[in-house]
Amino acid sequence: MNKKTLSDVDVAWLRGRTVVVRADLNVPFESGQISDDQRICASIPTLVALSDAGARIVLLSHLGRPKGRPDPEFSLAPVGRRLSELLERPVSFIPHADGRRAAGPVSNVPDGVIALLENTRFLEGETANDEALAESWAALGELYVNDAFGAAHRAHASTTGLARAMVARGGEAVAGLLMAKELRYLEEILRMPERPFIAIVGGAKISSKIGVISSLLPRVDRLLIGGAMANTFFRALGLDTGASLVEEDSIEIARQLIEEGGERLVLPIDCVVASEVTETSPVRIVDRKAVSGDDKILDIGPASRARFSDMIRRSRSIVWNGPMGVFEVDAFAQGTIEIALAVAEACDGGAMGVLGGGDSAAAAERAGVVDRLSHVSTGGGASLELLAGERLPGVDALTNQG
Ligand code: ADP
Ligand code: MG
Protein backbone atom coordinates (compact mmCIF):
# COMPACT_ATOMS: atom_id res chain seq x y z
CA MET A 1 0.00 0.00 0.00
CA ASN A 2 1.32 3.46 -0.88
CA LYS A 3 -0.61 5.24 1.87
CA LYS A 4 0.73 6.39 5.23
CA THR A 5 -0.46 4.41 8.20
CA LEU A 6 -0.48 5.00 11.92
CA SER A 7 2.74 2.93 12.13
CA ASP A 8 4.49 5.65 10.06
CA VAL A 9 3.63 8.36 12.63
CA ASP A 10 6.34 9.21 15.17
CA VAL A 11 5.11 7.99 18.55
CA ALA A 12 6.87 10.80 20.42
CA TRP A 13 5.09 13.39 18.26
CA LEU A 14 1.69 12.01 19.34
CA ARG A 15 2.04 12.94 23.01
CA GLY A 16 -0.48 15.65 23.87
CA ARG A 17 -1.74 15.93 20.27
CA THR A 18 -5.41 15.65 19.46
CA VAL A 19 -6.14 12.97 16.86
CA VAL A 20 -9.46 12.68 15.03
CA VAL A 21 -10.22 8.99 14.47
CA ARG A 22 -12.96 7.68 12.16
CA ALA A 23 -13.81 4.14 13.20
CA ASP A 24 -16.50 1.76 11.99
CA LEU A 25 -18.60 1.23 15.13
CA ASN A 26 -21.68 0.37 13.07
CA VAL A 27 -22.73 -2.66 15.15
CA PRO A 28 -26.04 -4.53 14.91
CA PHE A 29 -28.68 -4.16 17.65
CA GLU A 30 -31.38 -6.60 18.70
CA SER A 31 -34.17 -5.36 21.00
CA GLY A 32 -32.09 -2.40 22.09
CA GLN A 33 -28.93 -4.39 22.89
CA ILE A 34 -25.71 -4.66 20.88
CA SER A 35 -25.98 -8.16 19.38
CA ASP A 36 -22.45 -8.42 17.95
CA ASP A 37 -19.53 -6.23 19.05
CA GLN A 38 -16.93 -7.53 16.56
CA ARG A 39 -16.56 -4.13 14.91
CA ILE A 40 -15.97 -2.39 18.24
CA CYS A 41 -13.36 -5.02 19.13
CA ALA A 42 -11.65 -4.58 15.75
CA SER A 43 -11.31 -0.83 16.37
CA ILE A 44 -9.48 -1.26 19.67
CA PRO A 45 -5.84 -1.71 18.55
CA THR A 46 -5.72 1.77 16.96
CA LEU A 47 -7.35 3.41 19.98
CA VAL A 48 -4.98 1.65 22.38
CA ALA A 49 -1.92 2.59 20.29
CA LEU A 50 -2.96 6.25 20.24
CA SER A 51 -3.90 6.47 23.88
CA ASP A 52 -0.73 4.63 24.98
CA ALA A 53 1.23 7.22 23.01
CA GLY A 54 -0.47 9.95 25.05
CA ALA A 55 -2.68 11.33 22.27
CA ARG A 56 -6.09 12.86 22.93
CA ILE A 57 -8.69 11.01 20.84
CA VAL A 58 -11.81 12.45 19.20
CA LEU A 59 -13.75 9.49 17.82
CA LEU A 60 -16.28 9.54 14.98
CA SER A 61 -18.51 6.82 13.55
CA HIS A 62 -21.83 6.30 11.86
CA LEU A 63 -24.46 3.86 13.10
CA GLY A 64 -27.29 2.52 10.98
CA ARG A 65 -29.23 4.71 8.56
CA PRO A 66 -30.84 7.58 10.48
CA LYS A 67 -31.70 9.66 7.37
CA GLY A 68 -29.62 12.77 8.09
CA ARG A 69 -31.34 13.80 11.30
CA PRO A 70 -31.07 12.90 14.99
CA ASP A 71 -32.93 9.70 15.86
CA PRO A 72 -32.50 8.30 19.40
CA GLU A 73 -32.75 4.76 18.02
CA PHE A 74 -29.36 5.27 16.35
CA SER A 75 -27.51 7.09 19.14
CA LEU A 76 -23.89 6.03 19.65
CA ALA A 77 -24.25 6.40 23.45
CA PRO A 78 -24.63 2.62 24.09
CA VAL A 79 -21.70 1.94 21.75
CA GLY A 80 -19.59 4.33 23.85
CA ARG A 81 -20.46 2.38 27.00
CA ARG A 82 -19.51 -0.95 25.40
CA LEU A 83 -16.32 0.54 24.00
CA SER A 84 -15.32 1.78 27.44
CA GLU A 85 -15.91 -1.70 28.97
CA LEU A 86 -13.89 -3.42 26.25
CA LEU A 87 -11.06 -0.86 26.38
CA GLU A 88 -11.11 -0.65 30.17
CA ARG A 89 -10.61 3.08 29.71
CA PRO A 90 -13.04 5.97 30.10
CA VAL A 91 -15.03 7.23 27.11
CA SER A 92 -16.89 10.54 27.28
CA PHE A 93 -19.93 10.64 25.02
CA ILE A 94 -20.55 14.06 23.42
CA PRO A 95 -24.20 14.31 22.29
CA HIS A 96 -23.33 16.41 19.21
CA ALA A 97 -22.19 15.17 15.82
CA ASP A 98 -21.23 18.52 14.28
CA GLY A 99 -17.64 19.54 15.04
CA ARG A 100 -18.66 23.16 15.67
CA ARG A 101 -21.08 22.18 18.44
CA ALA A 102 -18.78 19.47 19.81
CA ALA A 103 -15.67 21.69 20.02
CA GLY A 104 -16.48 23.19 23.46
CA PRO A 105 -17.39 19.90 25.17
CA VAL A 106 -14.39 18.17 23.53
CA SER A 107 -11.97 20.76 24.95
CA ASN A 108 -13.33 20.02 28.45
CA VAL A 109 -12.65 16.27 28.19
CA PRO A 110 -9.70 15.40 30.45
CA ASP A 111 -6.48 13.85 29.09
CA GLY A 112 -6.72 10.07 28.83
CA VAL A 113 -10.46 10.08 28.13
CA ILE A 114 -11.72 9.35 24.60
CA ALA A 115 -14.30 11.84 23.30
CA LEU A 116 -16.91 9.98 21.23
CA LEU A 117 -19.13 12.25 19.14
CA GLU A 118 -22.72 11.42 18.25
CA ASN A 119 -23.58 9.47 15.05
CA THR A 120 -22.14 11.28 12.00
CA ARG A 121 -25.24 10.34 10.00
CA PHE A 122 -27.41 12.51 12.25
CA LEU A 123 -26.25 15.25 9.86
CA GLU A 124 -27.28 15.51 6.22
CA GLY A 125 -23.82 16.75 5.32
CA GLU A 126 -22.23 13.38 6.16
CA THR A 127 -23.46 11.41 3.15
CA ALA A 128 -23.45 14.59 1.00
CA ASN A 129 -19.70 14.93 1.79
CA ASP A 130 -20.27 18.51 2.92
CA GLU A 131 -17.00 20.46 3.07
CA ALA A 132 -17.93 22.71 5.99
CA LEU A 133 -18.89 19.69 8.07
CA ALA A 134 -15.64 17.91 7.21
CA GLU A 135 -13.74 21.07 8.14
CA SER A 136 -15.55 21.25 11.50
CA TRP A 137 -14.13 17.83 12.38
CA ALA A 138 -10.67 18.53 10.98
CA ALA A 139 -10.49 21.66 13.17
CA LEU A 140 -10.76 19.48 16.29
CA GLY A 141 -7.32 17.90 15.86
CA GLU A 142 -3.89 17.79 14.26
CA LEU A 143 -3.96 14.33 12.67
CA TYR A 144 -6.72 12.28 11.02
CA VAL A 145 -6.70 8.51 11.34
CA ASN A 146 -9.18 6.60 9.20
CA ASP A 147 -9.71 3.12 10.62
CA ALA A 148 -13.20 2.63 9.15
CA PHE A 149 -12.50 0.06 6.44
CA GLY A 150 -16.22 -0.82 6.42
CA ALA A 151 -17.01 2.74 5.24
CA ALA A 152 -14.02 3.18 2.90
CA HIS A 153 -16.11 2.61 -0.23
CA ARG A 154 -18.18 5.68 0.57
CA ALA A 155 -17.07 9.25 -0.18
CA HIS A 156 -18.59 10.84 2.91
CA ALA A 157 -17.67 13.91 4.97
CA SER A 158 -16.14 11.84 7.80
CA THR A 159 -14.09 9.71 5.36
CA THR A 160 -12.81 11.44 2.21
CA GLY A 161 -13.98 14.96 3.15
CA LEU A 162 -12.25 14.93 6.52
CA ALA A 163 -9.04 13.49 5.05
CA ARG A 164 -8.91 16.30 2.48
CA ALA A 165 -9.78 18.95 5.08
CA MET A 166 -7.01 17.76 7.40
CA VAL A 167 -4.47 17.78 4.58
CA ALA A 168 -5.65 21.25 3.51
CA ARG A 169 -4.93 22.46 7.06
CA GLY A 170 -1.37 21.14 6.79
CA GLY A 171 -2.01 17.92 8.75
CA GLU A 172 -1.81 14.33 7.61
CA ALA A 173 -4.49 11.72 6.97
CA VAL A 174 -3.32 8.16 7.69
CA ALA A 175 -4.78 4.66 7.75
CA GLY A 176 -5.47 3.16 11.16
CA LEU A 177 -4.14 -0.27 12.12
CA LEU A 178 -7.32 -2.14 11.17
CA MET A 179 -7.62 -0.31 7.84
CA ALA A 180 -3.95 -1.09 7.09
CA LYS A 181 -4.43 -4.78 7.96
CA GLU A 182 -7.54 -5.09 5.78
CA LEU A 183 -5.76 -3.50 2.82
CA ARG A 184 -2.62 -5.57 3.33
CA TYR A 185 -4.48 -8.89 3.15
CA LEU A 186 -6.98 -8.03 0.45
CA GLU A 187 -4.46 -6.29 -1.79
CA GLU A 188 -1.76 -8.91 -1.32
CA ILE A 189 -3.98 -11.86 -2.21
CA LEU A 190 -4.98 -10.11 -5.42
CA ARG A 191 -1.53 -8.87 -6.36
CA MET A 192 0.69 -11.87 -5.81
CA PRO A 193 -1.37 -14.93 -4.93
CA GLU A 194 0.53 -18.13 -4.36
CA ARG A 195 -1.05 -20.79 -6.60
CA PRO A 196 -3.35 -22.65 -6.78
CA PHE A 197 -5.54 -19.59 -6.16
CA ILE A 198 -9.20 -20.36 -5.53
CA ALA A 199 -12.23 -18.14 -4.96
CA ILE A 200 -15.49 -19.26 -3.38
CA VAL A 201 -18.48 -17.00 -3.98
CA GLY A 202 -21.91 -17.60 -2.52
CA GLY A 203 -24.74 -15.75 -0.82
CA ALA A 204 -28.10 -14.53 -1.87
CA LYS A 205 -27.75 -12.42 -4.97
CA ILE A 206 -25.59 -12.81 -8.05
CA SER A 207 -26.43 -9.23 -9.07
CA SER A 208 -24.58 -7.80 -6.02
CA LYS A 209 -21.47 -9.87 -6.75
CA ILE A 210 -21.14 -9.84 -10.52
CA GLY A 211 -18.31 -7.32 -10.23
CA VAL A 212 -16.38 -9.62 -7.91
CA ILE A 213 -17.01 -12.73 -9.99
CA SER A 214 -15.96 -11.07 -13.26
CA SER A 215 -12.88 -9.52 -11.70
CA LEU A 216 -11.74 -12.73 -9.97
CA LEU A 217 -12.55 -15.17 -12.78
CA PRO A 218 -9.52 -14.36 -14.98
CA ARG A 219 -7.15 -14.29 -11.97
CA VAL A 220 -8.02 -17.53 -10.19
CA ASP A 221 -7.39 -21.19 -10.97
CA ARG A 222 -10.89 -22.13 -9.78
CA LEU A 223 -13.98 -20.12 -8.88
CA LEU A 224 -16.54 -22.13 -6.89
CA ILE A 225 -20.13 -20.93 -6.85
CA GLY A 226 -22.61 -21.79 -4.10
CA GLY A 227 -25.58 -20.23 -2.31
CA ALA A 228 -28.72 -18.95 -3.98
CA MET A 229 -26.68 -17.44 -6.82
CA ALA A 230 -25.83 -20.96 -8.03
CA ASN A 231 -29.52 -21.31 -8.94
CA THR A 232 -29.23 -18.55 -11.52
CA PHE A 233 -26.28 -20.40 -13.06
CA PHE A 234 -28.35 -23.62 -13.06
CA ARG A 235 -31.03 -21.81 -15.04
CA ALA A 236 -28.37 -20.59 -17.46
CA LEU A 237 -27.51 -24.27 -17.99
CA GLY A 238 -31.17 -24.91 -18.82
CA LEU A 239 -31.91 -26.78 -15.56
CA ASP A 240 -35.19 -26.68 -13.64
CA THR A 241 -34.78 -24.92 -10.26
CA GLY A 242 -38.33 -25.53 -8.99
CA ALA A 243 -39.36 -22.86 -6.45
CA SER A 244 -35.77 -21.73 -5.69
CA LEU A 245 -34.63 -18.12 -5.55
CA VAL A 246 -33.49 -17.10 -9.05
CA GLU A 247 -32.61 -13.69 -10.49
CA GLU A 248 -34.22 -13.84 -13.90
CA ASP A 249 -32.44 -10.64 -14.98
CA SER A 250 -29.03 -12.20 -14.37
CA ILE A 251 -29.48 -15.50 -16.23
CA GLU A 252 -27.85 -14.08 -19.36
CA ILE A 253 -24.84 -12.77 -17.42
CA ALA A 254 -24.51 -16.15 -15.72
CA ARG A 255 -24.48 -17.79 -19.15
CA GLN A 256 -21.67 -15.49 -20.28
CA LEU A 257 -19.66 -16.19 -17.12
CA ILE A 258 -20.03 -19.96 -17.67
CA GLU A 259 -18.75 -19.55 -21.20
CA GLU A 260 -15.89 -17.26 -20.19
CA GLY A 261 -14.87 -19.34 -17.17
CA GLY A 262 -14.83 -22.73 -18.84
CA GLU A 263 -13.55 -25.33 -16.41
CA ARG A 264 -12.35 -22.63 -14.02
CA LEU A 265 -15.97 -21.93 -13.02
CA VAL A 266 -17.21 -24.76 -10.81
CA LEU A 267 -20.90 -25.17 -9.95
CA PRO A 268 -22.50 -27.51 -7.39
CA ILE A 269 -23.54 -30.91 -8.74
CA ASP A 270 -26.11 -31.79 -6.10
CA CYS A 271 -28.41 -29.87 -3.78
CA VAL A 272 -30.29 -29.99 -0.50
CA VAL A 273 -33.92 -29.15 -1.25
CA ALA A 274 -37.03 -28.57 0.86
CA SER A 275 -40.38 -26.95 0.25
CA GLU A 276 -40.04 -24.59 3.24
CA VAL A 277 -37.07 -22.74 4.73
CA THR A 278 -37.73 -24.13 8.21
CA GLU A 279 -35.91 -26.47 10.58
CA THR A 280 -38.74 -29.04 10.47
CA SER A 281 -39.45 -29.11 6.74
CA PRO A 282 -38.50 -32.54 5.27
CA VAL A 283 -35.29 -32.28 3.22
CA ARG A 284 -34.05 -34.29 0.24
CA ILE A 285 -30.64 -34.56 -1.36
CA VAL A 286 -30.95 -34.54 -5.13
CA ASP A 287 -28.83 -34.27 -8.25
CA ARG A 288 -28.99 -30.76 -9.71
CA LYS A 289 -30.89 -32.27 -12.66
CA ALA A 290 -33.63 -33.61 -10.37
CA VAL A 291 -34.98 -30.37 -8.89
CA SER A 292 -38.62 -29.58 -9.68
CA GLY A 293 -42.05 -28.44 -8.52
CA ASP A 294 -42.06 -26.78 -5.11
CA ASP A 295 -38.42 -27.73 -4.35
CA LYS A 296 -36.33 -24.88 -2.97
CA ILE A 297 -32.56 -25.35 -3.27
CA LEU A 298 -31.27 -24.30 0.17
CA ASP A 299 -27.74 -25.75 0.41
CA ILE A 300 -25.09 -27.48 -1.68
CA GLY A 301 -25.29 -31.27 -1.48
CA PRO A 302 -22.71 -33.73 -0.06
CA ALA A 303 -21.07 -34.55 -3.41
CA SER A 304 -20.54 -30.83 -4.09
CA ARG A 305 -19.17 -30.31 -0.57
CA ALA A 306 -16.65 -33.11 -1.05
CA ARG A 307 -15.59 -31.75 -4.43
CA PHE A 308 -15.33 -28.14 -3.23
CA SER A 309 -13.51 -29.12 -0.01
CA ASP A 310 -10.97 -31.17 -1.94
CA MET A 311 -10.17 -28.25 -4.27
CA ILE A 312 -9.96 -25.85 -1.32
CA ARG A 313 -7.60 -28.08 0.68
CA ARG A 314 -5.22 -28.22 -2.29
CA SER A 315 -5.11 -24.40 -2.69
CA ARG A 316 -2.49 -21.97 -1.41
CA SER A 317 -4.56 -18.77 -1.71
CA ILE A 318 -8.28 -18.62 -0.96
CA VAL A 319 -10.78 -15.78 -1.18
CA TRP A 320 -14.20 -16.60 0.21
CA ASN A 321 -17.30 -14.41 0.09
CA GLY A 322 -20.85 -15.58 0.72
CA PRO A 323 -22.38 -18.64 2.41
CA MET A 324 -23.15 -21.86 0.47
CA GLY A 325 -26.73 -22.08 1.74
CA VAL A 326 -29.25 -20.75 4.25
CA PHE A 327 -26.75 -21.34 7.08
CA GLU A 328 -28.98 -19.53 9.60
CA VAL A 329 -31.18 -22.68 9.64
CA ASP A 330 -29.33 -25.78 10.92
CA ALA A 331 -30.86 -28.05 8.29
CA PHE A 332 -29.19 -25.98 5.54
CA ALA A 333 -25.93 -25.01 7.28
CA GLN A 334 -23.82 -28.08 6.53
CA GLY A 335 -22.49 -26.95 3.15
CA THR A 336 -21.25 -23.65 4.56
CA ILE A 337 -19.76 -25.34 7.63
CA GLU A 338 -17.85 -27.92 5.58
CA ILE A 339 -16.46 -25.20 3.31
CA ALA A 340 -15.45 -23.15 6.37
CA LEU A 341 -13.63 -26.18 7.80
CA ALA A 342 -11.86 -26.85 4.50
CA VAL A 343 -10.65 -23.24 4.30
CA ALA A 344 -9.48 -23.43 7.92
CA GLU A 345 -7.61 -26.67 7.19
CA ALA A 346 -5.87 -25.11 4.20
CA CYS A 347 -4.85 -22.16 6.40
CA ASP A 348 -3.55 -24.55 9.09
CA GLY A 349 -1.32 -25.92 6.34
CA GLY A 350 0.06 -22.48 5.48
CA ALA A 351 -2.37 -21.26 2.80
CA MET A 352 -3.60 -17.67 2.89
CA GLY A 353 -7.38 -17.63 3.41
CA VAL A 354 -9.27 -14.35 3.40
CA LEU A 355 -12.97 -14.11 4.15
CA GLY A 356 -15.20 -11.13 3.33
CA GLY A 357 -18.90 -10.40 3.80
CA GLY A 358 -20.99 -9.83 6.90
CA ASP A 359 -23.03 -13.03 6.70
CA SER A 360 -19.97 -15.08 5.77
CA ALA A 361 -18.16 -13.75 8.84
CA ALA A 362 -21.15 -14.79 10.97
CA ALA A 363 -21.03 -18.23 9.33
CA ALA A 364 -17.30 -18.59 10.07
CA GLU A 365 -18.01 -17.62 13.66
CA ARG A 366 -20.70 -20.29 13.79
CA ALA A 367 -18.36 -22.90 12.32
CA GLY A 368 -15.80 -21.92 14.99
CA VAL A 369 -12.99 -21.29 12.48
CA VAL A 370 -12.43 -17.51 12.77
CA ASP A 371 -9.08 -17.86 14.59
CA ARG A 372 -7.74 -20.31 12.02
CA LEU A 373 -8.35 -18.07 8.98
CA SER A 374 -5.63 -15.64 7.85
CA HIS A 375 -8.03 -12.72 7.82
CA VAL A 376 -11.75 -12.10 8.30
CA SER A 377 -12.67 -8.76 6.83
CA THR A 378 -14.86 -6.38 8.86
CA GLY A 379 -16.12 -4.64 5.72
CA GLY A 380 -18.79 -6.25 3.56
CA GLY A 381 -19.32 -3.70 0.78
CA ALA A 382 -15.76 -2.35 0.96
CA SER A 383 -14.18 -5.80 0.65
CA LEU A 384 -16.45 -6.62 -2.31
CA GLU A 385 -15.47 -3.42 -4.11
CA LEU A 386 -11.77 -4.05 -3.48
CA LEU A 387 -12.07 -7.65 -4.72
CA ALA A 388 -13.93 -6.35 -7.77
CA GLY A 389 -10.83 -4.29 -8.54
CA GLU A 390 -12.39 -0.94 -7.66
CA ARG A 391 -10.69 1.88 -5.78
CA LEU A 392 -11.88 2.89 -2.34
CA PRO A 393 -12.41 6.67 -2.07
CA GLY A 394 -11.77 6.61 1.70
CA VAL A 395 -8.31 5.15 1.03
CA ASP A 396 -7.53 7.30 -2.01
CA ALA A 397 -7.95 10.47 0.09
CA LEU A 398 -5.23 9.46 2.59
CA THR A 399 -1.70 10.90 2.57
CA ASN A 400 0.75 9.11 0.26
CA GLN A 401 3.79 7.41 1.69
CA GLY A 402 7.26 8.91 1.26
P1 ADP B 1 -22.32 -11.89 2.68
O1 ADP B 1 -22.99 -10.96 3.69
O2 ADP B 1 -21.37 -12.83 3.32
O3 ADP B 1 -21.72 -11.12 1.53
P2 ADP B 1 -24.80 -12.34 1.29
O4 ADP B 1 -25.41 -11.19 2.03
O5 ADP B 1 -24.52 -12.18 -0.16
O6 ADP B 1 -23.46 -12.81 2.05
O7 ADP B 1 -25.74 -13.62 1.40
C1 ADP B 1 -26.06 -14.20 2.63
C2 ADP B 1 -27.47 -14.72 2.63
O8 ADP B 1 -27.68 -15.60 1.53
C3 ADP B 1 -27.78 -15.50 3.88
O9 ADP B 1 -28.78 -14.83 4.60
C4 ADP B 1 -28.28 -16.84 3.36
O10 ADP B 1 -29.41 -17.33 4.07
C5 ADP B 1 -28.67 -16.54 1.92
N1 ADP B 1 -28.63 -17.74 1.09
C6 ADP B 1 -27.56 -18.52 0.82
N2 ADP B 1 -27.91 -19.56 0.05
C7 ADP B 1 -29.23 -19.45 -0.19
C8 ADP B 1 -30.18 -20.22 -0.93
N3 ADP B 1 -29.81 -21.33 -1.57
N4 ADP B 1 -31.46 -19.77 -0.96
C9 ADP B 1 -31.83 -18.66 -0.31
N5 ADP B 1 -30.98 -17.89 0.39
C10 ADP B 1 -29.69 -18.27 0.46
MG1 MG C 1 -24.91 -9.96 3.64
Please describe what this structure looks like:
The structure is a single chain. With 402 residues, the protein is α/β, with parallel strands linked by helices. It has two domains: 6-180, Rossmann fold, CATH 3.40.50.1260; 193-387, 3-Layer(aba) Sandwich (Rossmann fold), CATH 3.40.50.1260. Helix content is 38%, strand content 17%. Helix 6 crosses helix 7 (157-168) and helix 12 (302-313) runs parallel beside helix 13.
Count every helix, treating DSSP H or I runs of 4 or more residues as helices.
Answer: 16
The whole-number mean of residue pLDDT values reads 96
Helix content: 25-40%
Approximately how much beta-strand content do the residues carry?
A: 15-25%
Structural class: alpha/beta
Distance between the termini: 12 Å
